[in-house]
Specification:
The complex is a heterodimer of chains A (511) and B (1058).
Chain A (H helix, E strand, L loop, with lengths): L3 H28 L8 H5 L15 H27 L3 E3 L16 H24 L3 H22 L21 H20 L19 H18 L5 H13 L10 E3 L26 E3 L1 H9 L5 H4 L34 H4 L2 E4 L1 H15 L11 H18 L3 H8 L10 H11 L4 H9 L32 H6 L1 H6 L6 H4 L8
Antiparallel strand pairs in A: 1-3, 2-4
Helix pairs in contact in A: 3-4, 3-5, 4-5, 5-6, 5-7, 6-7, 7-8, 7-12, 8-12, 12-13, 12-15, 13-14, 13-15
Chain B lengths: L1 H20 L4 E9 L10 E4 L5 E3 L5 E6 L5 E5 L6 E4 L8 E3 L3 H5 L1 E3 L5 E3 L7 E5 H7 L15 E5 L8 E5 L14 E4 L2 E3 L38 E7 L2 H4 L10 E6 L8 E13 L42 H4 L4 E13 L3 E13 L6 E14 L4 E16 L7 H4 L50 H7 L2 E19 L2 E20 L4 H4 L4 E23 L4 E26 L10 E26 L3 E12 L8 E11 L2 H4 L8 E15 L11 E7 L2 E6 L2 E3 L6 E14 L4 E13 L2 E5 L8 E5 L1 E18 L3 E19 L5 E5 L5 E6 L14 E4 L11 E2 L13 E5 L4 E11 L2 E11 L2 E4 L2 H6 L18 E2 L26 H5 L6 E3 L2 E12 L13 E14 L21 E2 L6 E11 L1
Parallel strand pairs in B: 1-7, 13-16, 32-36, 42-47, 46-51
Antiparallel strand pairs in B: 1-4, 2-3, 2-5, 5-6, 8-9, 10-15, 11-12, 13-14, 15-16, 17-18, 17-52, 18-19, 19-20, 20-21, 21-22, 22-23, 23-24, 24-25, 25-26, 26-27, 27-28, 28-29, 29-33, 30-31, 33-34, 34-37, 35-36, 37-38, 38-44, 39-40, 40-41, 41-43, 44-45, 45-49, 46-48, 49-50, 50-52
Classes of the chains: A mainly alpha (511), B mainly beta (1058).
Amino acid sequence: MKTFKQHLVRGIVGIVIARVTAFCTVGGLLGGAVVGLSSCNSYLDVNTDPTRPSSDQISLSALLPSIQVFTADAHARVSLSGAALWSQHLANQQSGDDDTHNTSGTDWNAAWSTIYLSALTNADRMVKLGVTQNNPHYQGVGKILQAINLMYATDIWENVPYSQAFRGSEVFTPQYDNQQQIYGTLSTLLREAVQLLQTPLPPGAEPLSGDLVYNGNVDNWRRLANTLLARHALHLSAKGAQQAGQAALQFLQAGSIATNAGDAQFAYTGGVTPFSIFRQNANELTIGRIFTVVIANYIVSQMNTINDPRLPLIARGERDNVLTTYTGAINGAGAAANGANTYMTPSTWYAANPVQLVTFSEAKFLEAEARFLAAGGTASSTGAPAEARTALVDAVRANMTKMGVAATAIDTYLQRIPPAAMLKLSDIMMEKYRALFLHPEVWVDMRRYNYDVNVYIGLQLPQNHNPDLRGRWIQRGIYPQSEQARNQTAFTANWQSRPDFLAEQMWRDRR
Amino acid sequence: MNNILRLCGVALCVLGVSLQSAYAQRTVTGKVTDKETGGRLAGVRVQVKGTRVGSVSDAQGSYKIDVPSDGQVLVFTYVGYAKKEVTIGDQTAVNVALEIDARALDDVVVTAFGVKQEKKALGYAVQEISAGEIKNANTPNVVSALQGRVAGVTITNSGGAVGGGSQILIRGISSLSPDADNQPLFIVDGIPISNATQSGNVQPSAGSNAIAGSNEQFAFTNRAADINPDDIESINVLKGPAATALYGLRAANGVVIITTKRGIAGKTLITFSSSVTVDEVGKTPTVQTRWGQGGSADTADRRTNFWSFGLPRSLNPNDPFFDNYRNFFRTGTRFDQNLTVSGGNTSTKYFVSASRMDQTGIVPGTDFQRSTVSLRGSTDFDEKFNVSTSINYSNSGGTRPNNGDRSIFSALNFWIPSYDVNDAAIAAPPLNQRTTDPYQPIRTADGRITNIVYNDGVIDSPLFFALRSALRDNVNRVFGDVKFEYKPTNWFTATYQLTLDYYNDTRRRVAPPEVGPAQTVNGFIVEQSLNRRELNSQLFLTARESFSEDLEGAITLGNAITDIENSSILARGQTFALSGFYDISNTAVAFNSRDFSVQRLIGVFADARLTYKNMLFLTLTGRNDWSSTLPVQNRSFFYPSASLSFAFSELLKNDDNFSWLSFGKLRGSWAEVGKDGIGPYRIGEYYGSVGAINTTTGFRLSPNAGSNQLRPERTTGIELGLEAKFLDNRLGLDVTYYSQEVRDQIVNLPVSLATGYSTFLINGGTIRNTGVEVLLTATPILTNEFSWDIAINWSQQRGSILSINEGINEILYLDAIGYIISKAVRPGSDPTNPNPAVGDLYGYDFVRNAQGQAIIQPDGYPTVDFSRQVKVGNALPNWQGGITNTFSWNGLSLAFLLEFRQGGDVFDIAEPNRYRNGISGWTDVRYRNIVFNGVNTQGQPNTTPILWQGAAINTTNFLFRNFNRTINAYQLNLQDASWIRLRNVSLSYNLPKAWFGEGSFIQGIRLTLTGNNLWLTTPFRGFDPDGLANGSGANTPGFVGRNTPATRNYAFGVSLTF
């Protein structure tokens, strides 16, 4: 009788044969190489993706253009997801849509994703890489781009993640910083950026390249940072108008954007901007009727009244035809209600030109407002320093020049600006309202002055206004649905009970 | 290589012979053959009766046994054949012919690595589906052929699109990861084949279809559908970890073993079969017929938008009614042709088959074709060495309809029943000739179709979309193997198999400028080429031994190496320059990308089996895997299993008191399976190209990253079962209980985008699946001419979430659709869900007071509470089952399969637009005074009715369109998708042989009539709920709609044998 030992011997012989044969045969068959037990590890060391660069392979100049396109995307997302509807630049084609101050978490998924996942994440990586490589200029540019995007975020949602954000697996559920902290962070980022951009490039550091905004011009970036610091200062006008005005002036005088050529703008591939949401067809006459938005009656009627030469540039008929009479849609009523005919077709100015992030014109509007406030002006006061009027005239001229309005037409238009002694805040803010069409800053301005009809003359709540707001104006967007699902605790902590949440003023705008 | 094998074999021969010779008294040799075919039988057990001396026949059917001096009788046993005893007498050569035992054949199943085992010996549940059942099912996809037939197995189709994928889940969802594929491993004749459903990259598109990796757009084929169902001899479903432990990590979700038909020695058979099938759309949504087009019942203007909230039809004769949900679909057809030739002699056997299927879909413009060719052969070089090989080629593909958001099926919900959806011809007028009237008839004066109907660019004409914006795919696939079997002695077998599975899938999608998703970019075209190649090397060494007459043992040692390479090239162009010419060369903006990955796996395993008195069976297994996809320090892992089967009826077989018991067995198993759970390149972080940006290219941090500390998942399971047959096998029962726990779940966690990532791969938690499976068989009537068989399967399954790891709040499955969300929460974290389970659905409720009463606003409406999501249901059925009745009378056979699914909540993604536009049947109640249950803001019972205001619809104050007040509430959106359906009816008739005469060229003719889905009852309001919104590769049950609806079909087939 065979013993257990003998069976065991068979087993062991079996194992040895299994391994040796398997590795020999397979090695031979698979690649001609012998894959023995010892080479098992190298056979398995194939877990590196050849189609994507690793953290070690990435460069500053490969990240910069991406962050820039994401920033322009974010600008357009914020505008189209709500800002331009609630500032009544645009109206919904259907009645009862978002422009009646209805908004939902799903409306804001795209803006949040663009700002956080795309723009801020990569800006964070670029700044860190700039530190590692001791490159002050990339760090400075990175911080400016961080500031622009973080400003969009807090302008929509007030409290937002930042100090605990971008930490990957260390913090899966970042808590939100309150808006006061965020405004501190913005100031720090921009001040540091100015410093870094004035630091000479150390030997061996890569000069700014891949820069699709300023083509590597470091001084332009510094001027942009100062302009943003001025914007930042005026954002806090509700906290103290005079000080805000004075602070803004200091930044502007430190060297802000000084010409139209210094505008921070972004040109998309093939000229297809996010505001060009219409079919473009090279062979056939272009038509397009966007489903959701029409240019709003509030801006169109103003421009009609004052015969604004920019109206034919920003609005066309639904078949891209030039209109003889312009009728904007009344917010909340639907385009059909009054036969609105003003569309943003592909050949309109904002669809066909680079996205205007921060412009010389805006810098001059900031200066005009800053001088008005610094001199003690209020929403209802009359009279301003002469420099305020000069800045306002420069701001309008810069905008019209850029849009290609003829010089004579500009001069004619400018005659409507009252003399300094008669200047009101509304003169400045209404001009800015028309010049910064679709710009999210306009919605910030309106909320800073709490939709004051002394500033925004003739402004009315949309029809079919969301009853939950009980006649009050919308003050914010809603946190995206993705945050509610993925970061529930932080989401809930920053959510105040509806319906008052939407109508509640942000910290920034509270006096 | 042969030399090596031979050398090893010789070495073992020497060893074996020397071990045995010491006990020899006299030697008997002989051959064992199949009585009917004369083919030689390998692996037949030969035993000297009354002793423990035994032997096994070799590949040539030859055996040699050393018989002790007192040995008188040889006993021959072979799985599937009747036992035979032969008295030796003075013979030194004993040749026997064994007869197939029809009843015994039922008791043989294919287990891991193709090993045929007696069912009796198994310590775990295995269920077999025969060729006949697959034939009866008459589905082109082998996976959907299993529907309703296997206990514990859930098959869900991706709808009725031709070539559409089907999903198979064995014992439910075993993973918490939103992107996990929970489907089993598919093995065809020992060849691991891919059953992947590759969604590829279908961007860009619009709506939720624009989300990267979205697979709802086209119901892509699950690749097991490349197999010709007619080639299949049997399918064995291995369910639990004990059954699949030997296959290793890729089998953690079970294994589907497909055995194909083989040639039989001495019998040349030619069969030809042909069938024609007619498909029509199955269940369609109920539609209200009472109200016409318009925005208000009180105004005469019916031309208000795409709503059907207008005047009653009776008041407006110009408002006809069309049931577009039915009228849109046409009758689909399917033609199948199969030819097989098989045969062989004693040493060489072959099988050749060819098939062709041509199908047109119920959606206009869609079609699917499949051609397959298979060659299989085996030959014995000598008595010890057998080589077999197979090669299978298939070509498949077709024109696929666009599903999902902003597709044919979303547009259909905007189609006013006042217009005929088919009132359209094929060509759109030039864009500049379109009128601005948004309500134009869709047929132009010259009879052509336009795509502008209601709102240009957003709501397309479904017909235009179907005919002009389909996707074409073309798949070429080859899989095959070479297998060497070497039996140097009768107790030892060495098998080596090298397998290949390769396919190339080219896809082309054109979206002309006219269709909504393509308008902003003036049309786009996507060309993609996907390649997958898998090589497997498998070596098994098996030694068998009889330790005594009562105790037998076998040990198998094996090694398996898997090498998978995936690659794809994508070219996308947008903005067509030349109108009407759709080619990538005609695009102004180009995007290119490439994917490439390699994945390797090495496994070493052992399997030991002990049999005591043909009554107690013990199996022990162990396997170690090394996976290339895990972090180096964690890539090696070992796992064992043990299973025991106790055929207690053996003890009672001579007891007359138990004569009613034909067979009884208890089984139990414990097993652990490790799993890498991820594909290649999922750990660490990378940067990805953003593509062309103006004049340069940019990179960004890839939003999906993974932990460098990832550990393999571990599945530990127990399974207990009882199998019994009564009254001479007329009644049978098989009950299984199982519980399996998956620890260290690898989860692709959706995280706050503020972390810098969108998803992060980590070990995330533990779930436990428990379930009961019952199989009941009965033969109420059995006479020579007539028989009635019943087979019932029933199963219940629940997946509990036991824990979710620290640092994770919850795991989100699907949040792309706002109304209903699918997620897993940590136990104890959510008061609305004390016992979280796999498949939980969440949604928004109304604002309620502390007593739970809904608070009704002064206008009579409640308000949706958006501040929190509450548990509202579960997507997985409570139980499911099937009943098959088969009646046979002479050559006539009638079988029908009733399928049940009880419970399982679903959200019909398409439905909100259906009621928002006033089409749904239940919007009929629109102008009744409804008083919501609840309390008013003063806490008093609400008595305020919501009233039709008599003016144009105020959308902020309207039941069917108000997001904030009503339609985001789960109460309007969650539905019960229970069903009872007549899944399959099959009537077949074998023409009597006498009709052909003796020796006729024709051996047999069989006629069949089959019908699928002939009857369905369900409370679900939409199309047939058997349709996954996200395709067959997704882990998101509970979401249906917006895909091609399931069909009902009728087929006639004829099969000839020569």
